[in-house]
């Protein structure tokens, strides 16, 4: 025996009649019956409900007015309601614009490696400029929040959003490769940089810095493998789609028995026996090795001596900059040379 479903008046799909605006001072706003006098809402467009509300609460409202004046009064109340709603919409839009401007400026600050206190300085500049160019828009610039704590929160939100976007793109990758670089920071903090490059079914290439893993203790192959494994598990990487890993020639990375590459290859084979992972040597590190093999000392030493002569004394440096200015050179100063990046010798010359 099936029980009949109870009928709900909210699901009757009644249509609002415009005549009820003049009779009972109700208007249809966002599919709701709104009283133009007290701003109360009635659940259903049923005439009996609107009439009962009007007679019970506003029976003395405009009793002495004729039909034409009642119609005009109702139109004025409708326009007033629409004006109120438009006012709140404008306030919300202005606040959203100020929040968006705060996010944009915070992104510029972190992109150019500026301190978080730069936001307050930029806000003072914007207010000063607006006071001269557009005084009527000064309040809009004052409403932008750029305090130090706000900039930190904005940057954290941007970072989380970029991470979420990268996680969504990662799920659509058919194959991907990793580039690993283990180095020590200036404060003696060991860190592992993990770059990812992958392609999806639409041949769209994704190349991003995936993570910077800090190594608190030793930097053996086991420690590096634990860091890479935790990063891949955090982003949901499948091991069977890893096709290539690029590293330099460090023993902890390329060791035959306990190196990182050996452990990653074993992991890939365990996940998919028909798939093998390739390993490549970093091209920048190969360039550095080529320099030591080619023995370019007769080229490197004169360039280093010239740069040191120019930078050793302030007088030499000022005269060299004056020479570049007089000759209308493309560069205004000399560039420093690094022995690791031997290809920069051409830029120095």
* Biggest beta sheet summary: 5 strands, mixed
Fraction of residues in β-strands: 5-15%
At the fourth level of CATH, the homologous superfamily of the largest domain is ATPase, nucleotide binding domain
Named at the architecture level, the CATH assignment of the largest domain is 2-Layer Sandwich
How far apart, in Å, are the first and last alpha carbons?
A: 95 Å
- Unreliable stretches covering 5 or more consecutive residues: 9-13
Q: Give the total of domains.
A: 4
Find the structural class using helix and strand composition: alpha/beta
The CATH class of the largest domain is identified as Alpha Beta
Topology order in helix (H) and strand (E) letters: HEEEHHHHHEEEHEHHEHHHH
CATH-defined fold name of the largest domain: Nucleotidyltransferase, domain 5
Radius of gyration: 35 Å
- Side by side, the strands of the main sheet go 6-5-4-7-8
Mean pLDDT over the full residue set: 76
Describe the global form: elongated
Residues in helix, %: 40-55%
Oligomeric organization of the protein chains: single chain
Number of helices: 13
By DSSP, the count of extended strands is 8
Could you explain the architecture of this structure?
- Residues 24-63 form the SPIN-DOC-like zinc-finger domain.
- β4 (173-184) and β5 form a beta hairpin.
- It is built from 13 helices and eight strands.
- Mean pLDDT is 76; it is low at 9-13.
- It is of the alpha/beta class and 349 residues long.
